[in-house]
Design brief:
It is built from 15 helices and no strands. The protein is an all-alpha fold.
């Protein structure tokens, strides 16, 4: 896992114009990277505008049952951040500040960001994405009020790592799966890059857990027990390993081949409840792996996302909510231009 100094310096250097309060980021004036066009830029711009209109005064999102879901709120915050918007800086600085406040208001003394309630599944998803968001914000701004919540959130992640080396839905040492584990590993990387201590033992245990999930076909299964590979969990596993500092090219190469052979069909856009989840992690994974596959994947998936955006700027998702889909789509399309520290190779 990178120590973060170089990541942070590059991030702050790239943000210099945004920090000065100008409406665009320094990267916007640079030559577009391969596969990234004005159509992508416009789609992201329209998507962020739609998200900004749905940020409530308290920092929550939209008017759905997911309005106060910390995973959805944090992903929205990351979409703004990935395009150069910081708290009180840039066109959407006000919205980002509200999101930060919302996340901090849900940071408990025991470190959990969220509310653990009996019967509620997935509290560690929200905790992981919220910690990731705070880590990225703190690394860029050094807002003093963020450090205590971020440090406590990291301590909770470390203390709830199970004996296998992973995490699951609740903040307790019990089971583990790749879906929740990737959230925690990305959060740990973001926090460590920002200067929060994470022990090598925690990192090594997580590496061992994720490495053990790879099947012979190059894909990754959901849990340690024998099971089938799948596209979303394979992307998630590669992202987790990259976040944990793994550099084994043979593992990534076989996983990359698996991902390219199992890209969801366009018909799955509306029918697969894990569509955006899978594409989000596949985008991260293939970006980290690099090579020709990244461009092929981005042209195919990015092209579909361009077609699916509504006239109002949003992407629709009946399984979760449109705010979630729009944040995910913006993050996916932003990958070639994004300067989030966690995307540094």
């Amino acid at each position: 896992m990178p120590i973060g100094g170089s990541d942070r310096r590059q991030f702050l250097a790239g943000m210099s114009i945004c920090l000065a309060g100008l409406p665009t980021c320094v990267f916007a004036s640079q030559e577009s990277p391969p596969h990234f066009s004005d159509r992508h830029r416009k789609a992201i711009s329209n998507g962020l505008a739609a998200l900004a209109n749905r940020v409530q005064d308290d920092g929550s999102f939209g008017q759905t049952p997911y309005q106060q879901n910390l995973a959805v709120v944090s992903l929205g915050g990351l979409a703004f951040l990935a395009n150069g918007h910081l708290p009180d800086r840039g066109p959407y600085g006000k919205q980002v500040s509200r999101i930060v406040d919302f996340v901090l208001q849900h940071a408990q003394q025991n470190g959990l960001i969220g509310v653990a309630r009996e019967g509620v599944r997935g509290v560690m998803y929200g905790h992981g994405f919220a910690t990731l968001f705070l880590g990225q914000i703190y690394g860029a701004t050094r807002q003093r009020e963020i450090r205590p919540a971020l440090s406590n959130a990291v301590k909770l992640i470390i203390s709830t790592q199970n004996d296998e080396g992973g995490w699951r839905y609740e903040p307790i040492k019990k089971d583990a799966d790749i879906s929740v584990t990737v959230c925690q590993t990305m959060a740990l990387r973001a926090a460590r890059n920002a200067g929060v201590f994470v022990a090598k033992e925690t990192i090594q245990k997580a590496r061992d857990y994720v490495l053990n999930l790879q099947n012979e076909d190059g894909g990754f299964r959901y849990v340690s027990q024998a099971g089938e590979s799948a596209y979303p969990r394979t992307g998630a596993a590669v992202v987790a390993l990259s976040s944990l500092g793994v550099k084994q090219q043979d593992i990534f190469a076989s996983a990359g081949v698996y991902l390219m052979e199992h890209i969801p069909t366009p018909s799955e856009y509306a029918g697969n409840p894990h569509y955006f989840y899978g594409q989000y992690y596949a985008a991260h994974a293939l970006w980290q792996i690099g090579g020709e596959n990244w461009g092929k994947w981005y042209e195919q998936v990015g092209g579909l996302l361009l077609k699916k955006q509504t006239a109002g700027g949003v992407w629709e998702d009946e399984s979760v909510c449109d705010e979630y889909a729009t944040a995910m789509a913006c993050l996916i399309l932003s990958m070639p231009k994004s300067y989030l520290p966690l995307l540094r190779k």
